[in-house]
Design goal:
Elements: H1 2-24, H2 32-49
Helix pairs in contact: 1-2
Length: 50
């Protein structure tokens, strides 16, 4: 049961980090690499949920 809670807490932290990074992006200067990094974060979270 604690393992599930730890996993959930870790995912919440990753999601918050993702949202923080997303908020800090400037549309004028964001590169494809920046977008690729965000996609990679989402894919990692999906893998951990599965």
């Amino acid at each position: 049961m604690m393992i599930q809670q730890d996993k959930l807490d870790q995912l919440k932290n990753q999601l918050q980090a993702f949202l923080d990074q997303l908020d800090s992006l400037n549309p004028e200067t964001t590169s494809l690499e920046d977008v690729d990094q965000l996609i990679e974060i989402i894919e990692q979270m999906e893998k951990k949920l599965g």
